[in-house]
Amino acid sequence: MDNLYLKTIKKELTAWEKKMQKKPSLTNRASKAIQEKIQNLVPDKVQNLITAAVKTMIETVISGSGLITKTEQTLKPSLAESDFLVTQAFSVYHKTAVAQGIGFGLGGVLINLADLPALLLVKTKFLFDCAKLYGFDISDDKERMFMLYVFQLAYCCDRRRLEIFPIIKNWDTESAEIEWEKLQTEYRDYMDIAKLLQLLPVVGAVAGGAANHRLMNKLKVTAMNCYRMRVLQ
Fold first, then answer.
1. How many whole angstroms separate alpha carbon 214 and alpha carbon 193?
2. Nearest to 57 by CA among 141, 121, 135, 127
3. What region, left, alpha or beta, does residue 202 occupy, with left being phi > 0 and alpha being psi -120 to 50 degrees?
4. Around Cβ 12, how many Cβ atoms within 10 Å?
5. pTM to 2 decimals?
6. Sign of the alpha-carbon dihedral angle for 175, 7, 74, 59
7. Rounded to an integer, what distance in angstroms lies between the CA atom of residue 51 and that of residue 43?
8. Residue 66 carries which DSSP code?
9. How far is CA 200 from CA 32, 45, 161, 190, 194, in A?
10. Average pLDDT, stretch 5-34?
């Protein structure tokens, strides 16, 4: 059973790695141009809030403040066990994020803006759980740095993806430093029309829930495959 599971995961991982190394197509470039026009519609207040929230998230991950306990122990489960536990943990975080998107979407613009830092906190907690459940020591500064690279890989443009993926793939043999401004800018720019629609009355709740659903799933797929890749290496 374990051998069959590993064979299946390796096949999925190979397909994902090829996707991560695929060069941007003309369609990707056109989509990027459209996204940039949409971003120009996002109020400065929203963009500044996202930038500030990402800065806070970076500081939280680097320090591990409130997310690491003195009795923290590194687990050593099998890959199948890790995948199962991470999927279970994700289910809770996913429900929380979607509920937040819907709840904040029902409010006015000012209330709605609170969803941005709230969503980042949910993502941060999920990444910490993910690292622990795959058997990595989150008290290690380098492991927390890895989380930020995983986060950036999930929410970056195709050009940046080609730069970040090799760093993640060779993480245990090479060292790297996060470019903080790029991480902040990439995440802010990734916030698309769905998050803009969330600021509107009536449709905000639907748009907010849908956007958070998509953003959380993107993080789950990216994080699980990044950690699977390291476990199998």
1. 13
2. 121
3. left
4. 14
5. 0.85
6. positive
7. 13
8. T
9. 23, 15, 31, 19, 10
10. 83
- Cβ atoms within 10 A of the Cβ of 82, count? 21
State pLDDT tens for residues 86-125.
999 999 999 999 888 877 666 655 555 666 788 889 999 9
d(CA 218, CA 165): 15
115 CB burial (10 A radius; 0-12, 13-18, 19+): buried
CA–CA separation, 134 and 87 (whole Å): 12
Query: How many Cβ atoms sit within 10 Å of the Cβ of residue 141?
Result: 11
Helices 44-63 and 141-154 pack at an angle, to 10 degrees, of 150
**The dihedral of CA 21, 27, 30, 35: what is its sign?**
negative
Closest CA to 172 of 206, 203, 146, 137: 146
CA-CA-CA-CA torsion sign (60, 63, 67, 73): positive
Quote the DSSP letter at residue 23.
Answer: P
**Cα-trace Rg, the chain:** 18
CA 25, CA 2: separation in Å to the nearest integer? 37
Taking the C-alpha atoms of residue 232 and residue 6, their distance in angstroms, rounded to an integer, is 9
